[in-house]
Every structure is written in C-alpha cells, then in structure tokens.
Amino acid sequence: MSDEGTHDASEELQVLNSLDVIRRRAWMFLPDDEPLDLAIVTLLLETALRQGVAPLTVRSGGGFRSLGADYDWLWRSEDGEPYVFDRLVPLPGGIQNSFRGEILLTAFAPFWAAVSDGRVVYKSSQGFDDARVLREAAGAGAFVVLVAEGTLATSQG
C-alpha cells in the first residue's frame, strides 16, 4: 500500500491560542470608535462588577486609565479561575458571549501595571518606572490596575 495518495490534515491545520485569535480578530473584541485603554478598562470594570467587587474607583489622567478596588480581584480568588490573562474565560453568571477582560490586557494594552497595597506587583514592561505608576495609583484603592493611554482600538486590528 502506497502512502503517496494519503493526505494528513494535521500538516495544514494551525491551532491558535486565544491570544492569537483575539489579536487577529480585534474587531470582534474591541469597539472601533474609542481609545484602546478605555475599551480595556471598560471591560475590566464589567468583569469586576460581575464578580461583586465594590466599591470601585475609575480614573483617567497622567497618561493612564485606572481601576481601583479595596482588594485584589484580578488574580485568583479562592473559587475563581487560576489565571485568566491568556485565554477567554466567561464572565460569572452565565452571560452569553461574555468574557473576562483580563485577556485584553495581555493581547492589546501598550502597557499595564497592577499595584497592591502601595507596591507595584506587576508591570507588562519597563515602559514606566515604579515611582510614576505608584503616583498615578495613589488614592484609587488598595488594589489598582493601570492601563497606559493609547491609540484607537481599530489601529490594533
């Protein structure tokens, strides 16, 4: 039996991870008529609200948009997803076609940082020094996510 006529579909299939899919189809995940940082923070706000996080502080200024809370809701909670920055995870409550906003930080944010209790606990790059990040986070809550202001979301896709 000859293998010349057989065709292996796996040689042609390309498996994409969630980040690749989102980056290639940004128009499906982001509005095209608002700044990228606003789109990301808006979805993070919805994510926090659907998890019952309150009170929340939303600010814009100093080159950042920020979302602050009294506790760290972004990373794993006892009954939450362990890591949601690299894949689509539905919002709590069974909302059809919804997803948590953290993946947009990884996929599109030009720079983002997390501050917990006055300490920078994560920066996506060295784009801004810790002192500036802490200054912009001051007074927004015990836990703050900052997203650098950027371009329109359409320029990402």
State the gist of this model.
The chain contains five helices and five strands, in the order αααββαββαβ. It is of the alpha+beta class and 157 residues long.
Q: Could you characterize the architecture of this molecule?
A:
By secondary structure, this protein is an alpha+beta fold. It has five helices and five strands, in the order H-H-H-E-E-H-E-E-H-E. It has helices spanning about 20-25, 25-30, 35-50, 100-110, 130-135, and strands spanning about 55-60, 65-70, 110-115, 120-125, 145-150. Strands 1-2-5-3-4 form a five-stranded antiparallel beta sheet, with helices on both faces. Helix 1 (about 20-25) crosses helix 4. The longest helix has 15 residues, at about 35-50. The radius of gyration is 18 Å and the shape is globular. The protein starts with 17 loop residues before the first helix and ends in a 9-residue tail after the last strand. Residues about 150-155 have low confidence and may be disordered.
Distance between the termini: 48 Å
What is the chain-wise order of helices and strands? HHHEEHEEHE
Structural class by sheet pairing and helices: alpha+beta
Q: Give the biggest beta sheet.
A: 5 strands, antiparallel
List keywords for this structure.
157 residues, alpha+beta, 18% strand, globular
Break the fold down into its secondary structure elements and pairings:
Layout: H1 18-24, H2 26-29, H3 36-50, E1 56-61, E2 64-69, H4 102-108, E3 112-116, E4 119-123, H5 130-137, E5 143-148
